[in-house]
Amino acid sequence: MGAGCNNGSPLDGALPDLPPEGGAALAAAGRLDGANYDQERVTGPASQGLVGDYFMRNDKVRIVVQAPNRAIGPCPFGGNVIDADRLVAPAGDQLGEVSLFLQLGRTIAFDRAEVVRDGKKGGPAVLRFFGHDAKNDFIDVPGLGGFALAVQDDYRADIDLKVQAAVTYILMPGESKLRMIYTLYNGSGGDERTTWGTLSDTGARIEAFHVGAGFGESEISEVVSGGLPPGPYAIFLGDNIGYGIIPIDDLGAPFPVAGVDVEIYGVTELSDALGDKGQTLAIPKNGTVTREIDFVVGTDGADVSAQSLVARKATVIPFSGTTEPGARVAVSDGAGKAVTVATAGSDGKYAGALPDGDYQIQAEGDGYRRSPAQPLALHGSAATTDLPVPASAPLSFTIRDTAGTPIPGKVSVVGAPPNAPDRRFRETTKDPLPYGVAGWALSRAGDSARNDQWDHPIALAPGQYRVVISRGPEWSRFDQLITLPAGGMKVDAVLDHVAPTPGYVACDFHQHTYISPDAPVPPSDRVMSYLADGVDFISSSEHDVHFDYQPLLDSLGVRGLLDSAIGVETTPWDYGHFIGWPLTVDPMSPNGGALDWAGGEMGLNLTPADIFAGLRKSGARVVQVNHPRAPDGAFSNFQQNFDRAGLSFDFGARVFGANVAAAPLSAAVLGLPEGAPLFSDKFDSVEVYNGFHLAAVAGERVDALVDANMRDWMNFISFGFTPTAVGDSDSHQWYSVPAGLPRTLVAVPDDSFAALQGGVADDVAATVSGMAPRDVIVTNGPFLKMTVDGMGIGRTVAHAGAGPLSIHVEVTTASWVPVDTVEIFANNTFDVPVPKGTTPTMSPVLCFTVRSPATARCAGALGGARALTVTTAGGKSTISIDITDVTADQILARQRAGAMGKDLWFVARAFGDVGMFPTIPAGIDKTVPVAELIAGNLAGRGVAALAFTNPIYVDVDGNGWRAPFAP
Asked: Which of 307, 427, 806, 867 has the fewest CB atoms within 10 Å around its CB?
């Protein structure tokens, strides 16, 4: 993989001619080594360059190209541009990676690199990489199922094109673009046609922009509807920097999804790529073709647009003006479609350049405040337009505890923004402003007067709002209706720790930052989100990357408030996602040493069992199955392991596992060995609560996905398999999906500030893995505890004699998280998969409620619907239930036929019906008037309280606990 010649490749005669050498030595290229690394690397939030990679620079930009290698991710092979920044006024690298895309999922596996020109003789710096086509096994289009299975066999990614390839990177002095010239030789023995384009991991806090569509991403289902219209370039806009991907001779039909941007060149719409129309790159037998894609580094979107148009030989006319500093300036065509976007500097000035024509221009500042739209006429001469944005009405705040100490918190402003979010100005799909929310902030220090990154006034338009300030479900909530004047105002919140969870730490094992391709949130902002919502412990879980939060916690000075462990979300494309922790980081690996679950060029993908074994070999003490089921109506269940495995339970044979007849796709389609099992029970925990999926079932408002996952999990327990049920946020967002809600409360010997400061990872891992009793509670708010005959969650108790059981349940919540029903399940089993034509319901053994009338499932419990007493005082609500009139025989009489033995397991669940909006903004849509949200009318609306325990096991027969359907 070192420098060298191309050794007489059939590509030789087709490689591009290089510009002449000579003149001042302004460009340079070489390899990063121990001596030059600090000087030549490109630093920044998305920086990936390691010793052994290659650098390029001139008087305008710095670039790093990854050495040939393999590390699982959206671009699994090296040889691609991975880092880029300006030389003057650098913004820091924010780019992910840019790779070639062929045949609906192939790329180039580069294996040799050459420094063609190091720039010492003047002229360009030139690098060249050689390789061959290979499957990009991070993705698998047929694995989506449905329409994707209809892709013709000749166009599938596992068809070897037998293409040899080279890419020549040319960086000229004085230019802020890199020419990427791909040369492809067809050695297949026949003529070849294929799709071609680019696949880019967009990078850090990047917003993808496309002409005609503006900012934003697509849903995978949009492939069949054509996707976004073709355009001349793609813009990746970061903080004070922009990148452009420009096909020189084609238009590209874009497909930006989950932080990865695919551009298919030469088609009229994206769906063409699925058939004959998409095979736009023809390579004759024993022949070559050359395609050029330019990579541009600019200051903002408008600068990238101007450079891209010039690269495509267009004539452009400048435009400029002034507006509010930091405002986005959107330019649209006559039909109102996005053309480009500029960002005003600290002096309020903006600029750009476009072809001759008539446009419309408008500016937007913070808080969705917009200037009036104005015409922009570019006809032969430059145009200047000033765009005054209405002044903001700043909302200032302080957040303190009852002792007067400033504390972190989340500020949510309920109301309507002055203008609806619009993708012409900014990204609206990755973290959309939730309906009914006009503004928000995550506060680190509890004082907006600091005016820093996390503590600053919130820019709003004057009007009526409800201000809600919270610090997670253990704390009271500040709630005030305000009329915000034009000059702004201040609110002072005092929060009380009304519902602490002594002996437990609040954990989130599943979250993402921009280290994952599909999340825009910086790791520092993710930490702030956890502080604002009162989370104690996290294990990192980036997609196929090992990441360590500990140095960041130290630099932010938050040890004692938050502890962490290194983990990973191993992310097979189409048969499930799996977590492992704790792990370590390999500093010499592009992804920190993450397990390569895919087959590479020679093999098949790892089965779930092999993945679990691989994670454990890497040091993981906890292995977890994430989001095992897809919600009803989902486009595909390609990320849900239990769905993909066809998980089924055979109560007669007393076995459970993968069911080929119920699986939507075969193992072979998923890149696994023919007949390989898609389910393994060698995991420690399962994500029962992930996200919010409200639905009406049997006349009751429930989280349908939690119910579905609980049915699997309770069946596991009844078969004697007892993984820990956990709840995680799986947040990819700042606000719309709050980090740490839901969460997992894990019992530890010490949950004090000092313990968190010293580290609780070992104790958390011991409890979740079952090395210690699985004393674990899953919750979005309530603190729910239960004992049976005096023994708590995760433990086994021997019940002597035939007398009644002694069951005790306690619920403590902040008063804004009301609970109105408590259920107890025992030895419940469910038909999985659900028989067609039936509605799956939960059937508690005992049910306590304040609802009238009670739900049918509550009324069907032992003793019917029992009265529930809720005591509310001092900002908290408490429930205490003692049950002494139920015997083991009464419960056993309700079991499924075929159950054996007399032993029992118990799980408690508590929930309510009053939404927790805006602290959890999900579940509210435009059917609810904003005025109702400002008024705080949330009964029957939004995400309500929900918590459940892990099991308590009761040995009734005195022979040790045994599950009723154990083999």
From this structure: 867
869 token code pair: 């007493």
Burial of 837 (0-12, 13-18, 19+ CB in 10 A): exposed
User: What sign for the dihedral angle of Cα 352, 353, 354, 357?
Assistant: positive
d(CA 904, CA 616): 32
| DSSP-assigned states of every residue in 885-943 | S--HHHHHTTSPTT--SS-EEEEEEEE-SB--TTTS-TT--TTS-HHHHHHT--BTSS-
Give tens-digit pLDDT for 183-202: 999 999 899 999 999 999 99
Closest CA to 182 of 132, 138, 230: 132
Using alpha carbons only, give the angle 730, 467, 781 rounded to the nearest 5 degrees.
40
Helical (H) or strand (E) element with 171 = strand 163-171
Paired tokens of 724:
């820990």
Virtual CA dihedral for 635, 637, 640, 643, nearest 10 degrees? 140
> In sequence order, what are the beta bridge partners of 411?
441, 469
Q: Which of 540, 324, 474, 433 is nearest to 782 (CA)?
A: 474
Cα(136)–Cα(78) distance, integer angstroms: 12
Side chain identity, residue 308? S
687 against 637, higher pLDDT: 687
Contact 179, 169 (CB under 8 A): yes
| DSSP run (H or E) holding 304 | helix 301-311
From the centroid of its chain, how far is CA 583?
20
Largest CA distance in the chain: 97
DSSP-derived letter for residue 507 is E
Report how far residue 725's alpha carbon sits from residue 774's, in angstroms, rounded to the nearest whole number.
Answer: 9
Q: What is the pLDDT of residues 590-631, one digit of tens each?
A: 999 999 999 888 789 999 999 999 999 999 999 999 999 998
* Residue type for position 389: V
What pLDDT digit, counting tens, does each position of 261-286 carry? 999 999 888 778 888 888 999 999 99
Relative to beta strand 537-539, strand 504-508 is parallel
Q: What percent of the chain has pLDDT over 70?
A: 98
Length of the chain equals 967
504 Cβ contact partners less than 8 Å away, ≥ 6 residues apart: 745, 746, 747, 748, 751, 775, 777, 783
Order the strands of the 622-625 sheet from edge to edge.
568-570, 578-581, 622-625, 685-690, 724-728
The backbone region for 288, taken as left when phi is positive above 0, alpha when psi lies in -120 to 50, beta otherwise, is beta
The token pair that represents 789 in the structure block: 């005959």
User: Using CA atoms, how far apart are residues 83 and 96, in angstroms rounded to an integer?
Assistant: 7
How is 400-422 classified by DSSP, letter by letter?
EETTS-B--EEEEEES--SS---
Integer angstrom CA distances of residue 51 from 37, 108, 224, 590: 7, 22, 43, 11
Cα(242)–Cα(85) distance, integer angstroms = 9
Q: Tell me the C-alpha distance between 245 and 295, whole Å.
A: 5
Report the alpha-carbon distance of residue 238 to residue 421 in Å, rounded.
Answer: 19
Measured between alpha carbons, how far is 565 from 759 in angstroms, rounded to an integer?
9
Which is more confident, 158 or 362?
Answer: 362
DSSP secondary structure string for all residues of 814-850 = ETTS---EEEEEES----SSPPTT-------SEEEE-
